[in-house]
Amino acid sequence: MKLEIKAFGIWSLIKVTFFLNLILGFMIGVLTALFLVPMMALMSEMGGFPGMPTQDIQLSFGAMLIVIPVMNSLLYAVFGTILISIMAGLYNLVARLLGGIEINVADLTMQPVVTTAPADAVHRPTMPPPPSPIHPPTAATPPIEPSRPSPTTDSFGRDKPENDQQYDR
Fold this sequence. Notes:
The chain is mostly helical. It has a domain at 2-47 and 61-104. It is built from 2 helices and 2 strands. The longest helix is centred in the middle third of the chain and has 38 residues, at 61-98.
């Protein structure tokens, strides 16, 4: 089945991308702060860059761990949303002129698998394992005898036909 994306709804795209860019910007801001703050601490211990003013106007490193992710998330959310909105508008314009993107979709409806035993199957209880030679049976435990077929079943546990003589030998 072929489907075609004709256009994107700009307002729904703005809402979704703003939220996703806010989260993505915060995560990247946290990683940036975790790497940038120790580097800045190292640079301040080394005396800074040549030609750098030696004023003590700086944010504390703890505050930078909070400010960098918040500012990064806001910048990502605003500018990322603007960029995605422009791209969606351009796509809608081009899709109107040339046609949208075709997508091939397969219908994968899964049928439930039902496994049932055949009607002629007989449930036979399994025998317990034989006693181990390390621990021989004591007088209190009776020996295990093999099961014998009943007169109405053959040696495989199937019902005998009543008028068939080959089973009565």
